[in-house]
């Protein structure tokens, strides 16, 4: 309701005002501005100086109106909006989504940025051994592997006894004999080959060796195909290509953000983080499978960190708009700030800022 009133009031008063001075009745006024750091909308350089698209736009508005600005930082959007609601600050600056619920507590200016949520994934990682092991167990392959291990042990013992009985050149040391037999059995399993026994029994030895070759090739093919099958299944089932694939996965969100609210409403398992750096760290550590946040934030981070192997996938969902938030009642700033913002949009200043931070991607 506050948003609608602000827009309606802006339209009427703008028509009544005959010059720019009508929108700045309190030039020289000291304005308390709250912000939350979230690149590319609010950033700090190495010297602590504030920058970013939202800050640059606000400072241009303040310059146009002749305001003196003091800044205060807040950790999350809810605290920032609460400060605006209570009058602790005069303006909340940043990537602040305009929602019906928020507009019941604070006033919003004209929207200045089209936003929405997207999904970020880590494409640099590979399937872990634990994932493969679990997949093999779920598919029942580990039980088969257990039988193969038992067969290898029995084959090693049997081959040792066989060679000690029939091969006069075979070592008399049990330890050396078992080791030699185990090596021979593993050659069968891994390479499908076996030191020839044909010299022991002529044609019968050749058939014996051929029999072991067939077994070895079959065992090796079975192990290879089962592992490949599990890895393929993991890639298909575990891959996240957009918002429709998030169910069943732990998802990183920013604490107090619209992304957190949307994900929880959809029953997604969420993990809250203070900023994109912390969320990306969790993603790369496999603590979460994806990040859901403002599309512009994720796209900017990806572009600034090309070597991280991150990708922003899928469509933009839950579209919304960003605006500046002001106290809902008795704010003398809503009208001049909104009219000046409209002027900067018409002059192309906002478009220039958007190209500065996002190029021609948006």
UniProtKB/TrEMBL annotation:
What range(s) does the Solute-binding protein family 3/N-terminal domain occupy? 30-361
Q: Where is the Ionotropic glutamate receptor C-terminal domain?
A: 30-360
* UniProt organism field: Rhodobium orientis
**Which InterPro entries does its entry note?**
Ionotropic_Glu_rcpt (IPR015683), Iontro_rcpt_C (IPR001320), Solute-binding_3/MltF_N (IPR001638)
**Lineage top rank: taxon:** Bacteria
Please give the GO cellular component terms listed in this UniProt entry.
membrane
Look up and give the membrane topology term.
Multi-pass membrane protein
Q: Which lineage is the organism of this entry classified under, starting from the top rank?
A: Bacteria, Pseudomonadati, Pseudomonadota, Alphaproteobacteria, Hyphomicrobiales
Compartments it resides in: Membrane
Gene Ontology terms for molecular function: ligand-gated monoatomic ion channel activity
Q: Which residues cross the membrane?
A: 144-162, 200-223
Q: What is this protein called?
A: ABC transporter substrate-binding protein
Which UniProt keywords are given for this protein, alphabetically ordered?
Glycoprotein, Ion channel, Ion transport, Membrane, Receptor, Transmembrane, Transmembrane helix, Transport
- The answer to whether the entry has keyword Transmembrane is yes
**Keyword match Transmembrane helix:** yes
